[in-house]
Amino acid sequence: xxxxxxxxxxxxxxxxxxxxxxxxxxxxxxxxxxxxxxxxxxxxxxxxxxxxxxxxxxxxxxxxxxxxxxxxxxxxxxxxxxxxxxxxxxxxxxxxxxxxxxxxxxxxxxxxxxxxxxxxxxxxxxxxxxxxxxxxxxxxxxxxxxxxxxxxxxxxxxxxxxxxxxxxxxxxxxxxxxxxxxxxxxxxxxxxxxxxxxxxxxxxxxxxxxxxxxxxxxxxxxxxxxxxxxxxxxxxxxxxxxxxxxxxxxxxxxxxxxxxxxxxxxxxxxxxxxxxxxxxxxxxxxxxxxxxxxxxxxxxxxxxxxxxxxxxxxxxxxxxxxxxxxxxxxxxxxxxxxxxxxxxxxxxxxxxxxxxxxxxxxxxxxxxxxxxxxxxxxxxxxxxxxxxxxxxxxxxxxxxxxxxx
Amino acid sequence: xxxxxxxxxxxxxxxxxxxxxxxxxxxxxxxxxxxxxxxxxxxxxxxxxxxxxxxxxxxxxxxxxxxxxxxxxxxxxxxxxxxxxxxxxxxxxxxxxxxxxxxxxxxxxxxxxxxxxxxxxxxxxxxxxxxxxxxxxxxxxxxxxxxxxxxxxxxxxxxxxxxxx
Lengths: 405, 165
Hints:
The structure holds 2 protein chains of 2 kinds.
Chain A: H1 3-6, H2 8-42, H3 58-68, H4 79-97, E1 107-109, E2 112-114, H5 124-134, H6 136-145, H7 149-172, H8 174-180, H9 185-190, E3 195-196, E4 200-201, H10 213-226, H11 238-241, H12 251-276, H13 293-310, H14 315-334, H15 338-367, H16 373-401
Antiparallel strand pairs in A: 1-2, 3-4
Chain B: H1 4-25, H2 29-49, H3 53-78, H4 90-111, H5 121-124, H6 130-140, H7 142-164
Helix pairs in contact in B: 1-2, 2-3
């Protein structure tokens, strides 16, 4: 018997993990590109545009730079903990992606039917919170082990911040748990299928008996704070703490913190879409037109990229951009094939929602100033926590009134 | 044939015991705290292997994620350095070794089936899923449950009063 026959689940899981990590790393690289471009636009700058046409090779250049920089270890650090922190950061934020379902239909790998996503566990949401609660350590330990004042302050700040916002984040989803009665992310999405009056989607932010828009606002705000992003990036706070907890980290260890941050951003976007915006359910009732949105989007974007690329200033750009546009246009055409079209619908909608939240992340970063530390604590404890509790009570009351379970 | 469940059990069991030994052996408070986190997480994995998924998640969220963060936070805040080893406590030598031997013997006797009460594993380890657990907590044992929450509330109030002083 071959190893595959003995442990089919193990082999298939390893394949899925390898594919997902590859896709994820590429995605993270290009999220950084997208973020720099978008923020640049908001601040009337160009953003990266030297490395490759429109700076498309910038992530690659960054990666190479990180790999070849000297990996400097400052004196007097606690070596073990100093090395542990970035590993912990990246490992934990990649671990959270493992429980996210990317679509409803199982796929077939090597003759094994397997869900689209690494693991489909029935405590998915609890698992997410458990791993999130551990990710405090990477920041706290990284700051402490560096044996330097600024990182220590950054680490202390961020551990206090993450503990505070974790509470509101966890409480804000209790309303959903009450209404759906499950911890499984897949079942939470399934519970949001259908429409009210034929056109309002039954997503949790609209759902009866108590629409979870309050929970949604609290969850997303707290999640932004959990991922240490602006306006809650007190852990880094360039103007006060040099670079916060990762001041003393160089080279690839710094890159690991960086990748961890973007990976957890992506997880937050996925989880928010799944919990509140109906996951992979389309916002439109069944009709013959909207299934062709992916085609229109990709073909249109492809044609635009071709048009833009043909008059780009460098020769390299005049070659690369039209080819890229052509690939996108062809992809759009492929999405129109009925079998493919049906298969990509759910994932398309999920990714659209994720992209929407990613944009909000970047938008917020480009617009809002950083909180002061006491404002941050006051917001977390005096506003968001009471609101989250109120949301739980109101949801429970509404369910009782509506004669729920 | 490689039994994955057995392999995982031994992996996490060794990690738990190793973490506990390391907790005692480390001289730096942060290292000790990290060892304790390893113990907590391994215990959660062991619960998971028993099918107690809710307990496993709560173990990580509450112990590893909240309580230990406070430990680490306080150690960082006080900037506690390495500790000196003091001489061995005489009590530990006089009382510790016999008690240790006695406990080991008791455990061995119990595991080998010498104990007459067959508190059989099946009756204890009946994995509850989260819904059954909730039904138990909020229906059958709702009074003790609420009583415990009042106890915790009193403890919180006490902490606040002490902190304000």
